[in-house]
Amino acid sequence: MTEARTPPQGESPEAMLGVTRSVGGRRWVRRPGDERQALAISQRLGVPEVLGRVLAGRGVTVESAPVHLDPTLRALLPDPAHLRDMDRAVARLAAVVQAGETLGVFGDYDVDGATSTALLHRFFRDLGVPVRVHIPDRLEEGYGPNTPALLRLQEAGATVVITVDCGISAFEPLAEARAAGLEIIVCDHHEARAALPEALAVINPKRLDETSPHRHLAAVGVAFLLIVGVNRALRDAGWFEKAGRAPPDLMTLLDLVALGTVCDMVPLVGVNRALVRQGLKVIARRGNPGLNALAEVARVSEAMNAFHLGFLLGPRVNAGGRVGEAGMGSALLASDDPVACLEMARHLDAWNAARKDIEAEVLAQAIEQAESAPPADVPLVFVVGRDWHPGVLGIVASRLKERYGLPACVVALEGGLAKGSGRSVTGLDLGRAVIAAREAGLLEAGGGHAMAAGFTVTEAALPAFRAFLGEGLLAQKGEDMLESRLDLDGLLDVKGVTPDLVRALDQAGPFGAGNPDPVFALPGVRVIRADVVGTGHVRCILGGVGGGSLKGMAFRAADSEIGHALLSAGSVPVHVAGQIRADTWQGRDGVQFLIEDVARAPS
């Protein structure tokens, strides 16, 4: 590892290895961190120095390090009652259980919505409550609650409906449901307006009048707090003894909480970190038949981590809402029938394959459009197409964000309306910008959170919205973000990239939004061999300056400058930056390097 220096305020960070502009167009800089804290963490906790540096680079101090390394729910889970309207919701739902009423759950079609819905379904079903679930069809119904679906839940017997991962902006449908005599509890985490929808309770850590410090909870995290509150209320009322039931083990539901939290890209800090870390332990016990079936079709046999959830299981759950049956993901996760789960998982796997084909076609058109457009002076990639499938807009936006390092919005035109989805980068709040556009009257509908947003706008208003959004993001972008940078946690030699290093770094996980994977540079390596595999991935063998070799992989890079640099490097040394991953294929105890960027090295 190299020594780091935090530059004085206003001074540009020193370029590591002299890389001021890499092949990927980025300046390589040391991730900011307190060197004294790094050393103190290493010495006080007896952990490797490299781990101390990684922790310090993420704002961890010697005092907070023990909880960060061992994030328990006992230490980090808040009292559910601290959230506004939680007590009101808990009291009504406890009454639903005690009276044997029928409960409705209206969820979203993404992973956070599917896991939230399955969580509530499992919890209340285990208490003997009849549960009716509705997940809207993306094409026919669009996002969020709609009046006909809510009334159908009422016709099916529901007296109370929980809207989960949606509802905070559904003013008209919720007002109409209330007028029909249906009681609504909103359980959401998307950005809220000053006004709230008409509901019995609105639980949302992003309410403008909310004082909760836990604004970064995913919807499934909010739903978990809700069932913790209901479970406690029933226990305090002595209901379990009266009903002759054992209280449910809520810890067994943390596998769903972990999946939804990781896949919704909320920051993996604080309580989110504890939920995911403990949830991964539950997943390892393989108690959920739906998750087991997903792992089987995804060919995952090793112990799962956040990577598996985000990139292998999550996309398959999402596939039903994107191009298949919207409710199948939540149905799979709520089912206890292994045979039915495997059948549903196979359907989702097939839909995921179909989604990839559709995505590839739309992505190719989107990249062509983005790269043929004149240079923009705002931090935004914005592409528009006719007949683009609405189910892949979000994932194409994610691909564009990864490719260009900027917020990206992908828009489909149909019948005079434009429906779009966006994904953002750390430091730029896309949801806030979209909500500002909605408040300015530019949108028919829109909302989201910092990292993701969706919107509907008339085709005529699309240019004005695009300009407004770009200016809003530009206003958020500080001077220190004007240059595209890659934060590095240090330099490593090829021989130093070992399974022991992987295991040491894993102590700082789970990694994701808000707790980024450590990124290291390998200076002056040679690309011994490189070829294209799969769907445009570049696979290579890297040779170290002092000997040794290491597997490398650059995903979806074959048609990028980074991929071209690897494929054409030959014997010319290059600096390579990326992440370290365990290689457990066929029982191996190896390591591979996931390449994020390449820079030319002095020969």
Automatic annotation (TrEMBL):
<dbReference type="InterPro" id="IPR001667">
    <property type="entry name" value="DDH_dom"/>
</dbReference>
<dbReference type="InterPro" id="IPR038763">
    <property type="entry name" value="DHH_sf"/>
</dbReference>
<feature type="domain" description="RecJ OB">
    <location>
        <begin position="489"/>
        <end position="597"/>
    </location>
</feature>
<feature type="domain" description="DHHA1">
    <location>
        <begin position="381"/>
        <end position="469"/>
    </location>
</feature>
<dbReference type="InterPro" id="IPR051673">
    <property type="entry name" value="SSDNA_exonuclease_RecJ"/>
</dbReference>
<keyword id="KW-0269">Exonuclease</keyword>
<dbReference type="GO" id="GO:0003676">
    <property type="term" value="F:nucleic acid binding"/>
</dbReference>
<keyword id="KW-0540">Nuclease</keyword>
<protein>
    <recommendedName>
        <fullName>Single-stranded-DNA-specific exonuclease RecJ</fullName>
    </recommendedName>
</protein>
<dbReference type="InterPro" id="IPR004610">
    <property type="entry name" value="RecJ"/>
</dbReference>
<feature type="domain" description="DDH">
    <location>
        <begin position="105"/>
        <end position="261"/>
    </location>
</feature>
<dbReference type="Pfam" id="PF01368">
    <property type="entry name" value="DHH"/>
</dbReference>
<comment type="similarity">
    <text>Belongs to the RecJ family.</text>
</comment>
<dbReference type="Pfam" id="PF17768">
    <property type="entry name" value="RecJ_OB"/>
</dbReference>
<dbReference type="GO" id="GO:0006281">
    <property type="term" value="P:DNA repair"/>
</dbReference>
<dbReference type="Pfam" id="PF02272">
    <property type="entry name" value="DHHA1"/>
</dbReference>
<dbReference type="InterPro" id="IPR041122">
    <property type="entry name" value="RecJ_OB"/>
</dbReference>
<dbReference type="GO" id="GO:0006310">
    <property type="term" value="P:DNA recombination"/>
</dbReference>
<keyword id="KW-0378">Hydrolase</keyword>
<dbReference type="InterPro" id="IPR003156">
    <property type="entry name" value="DHHA1_dom"/>
</dbReference>
<dbReference type="GO" id="GO:0008409">
    <property type="term" value="F:5'-3' exonuclease activity"/>
</dbReference>
